[in-house]
Amino acid sequence: MTFMEAILREIRYSGTGNTARLECHRKVHFRPGQYFLGNRADDPDEILPVVLHPATFPDPMLPLAPCPSNWQAGNRILLRGPFGNGFHLPEESLRVALFDWEGLAHLLVPLMQRALSQQAAVVLYASVPPSNLPPEVEVLPLEALSESFEWCDYLAGVIHRDSLAEFYQATGWKHSLHLPAHAEVLVHTPMPCGGMGDCGVCAVLEKRDWRLACKDGPVFSLHHLEVA
What we know:
CATH class of the largest domain: Alpha Beta
């Protein structure tokens, strides 16, 4: 984890959420799926940090989303991170299937970029693809997701915590449907303490115990998750 100050240079608006483009004074390293915590340096009333997810890899600015509505270009932003457990894409994976269960596909773009950099074929199953979708990524209807389980050698997605039961039922997962050995999901849930207080608000149930998305996630193995 690192602490740094950045300047908010630009805000890009899209239908999938606004992105803050930050100028950092040092090189930023992160694994797709990890997150940052940010505060406006000039706002003493902003007590709780904002959870920010990388929208792409730095280009060279660091794009983070969602950008809070009260942030403006020129603000000084105090950043901490990266935090949490990210995606673990095997270097040998060549057939990558990604899914967005409910309009959060922009959180998968860094993973798409990583997969494309190792010459993998990438398919996104989503209802609404993100505006910054790499052109090499094929988009298919979310309803066809189950058909990818035998094709892909790596499966990953993003879903709200409260929708896990719906996802299990819709895909037939609870009935021993075959999944690839490497299958992960970013569980999107509030993380108000950012891993600093063990408040339990972001608790996610695994087969053996409860885990905290802010520390043990937000990326979890699909093989380990359970429905409460």
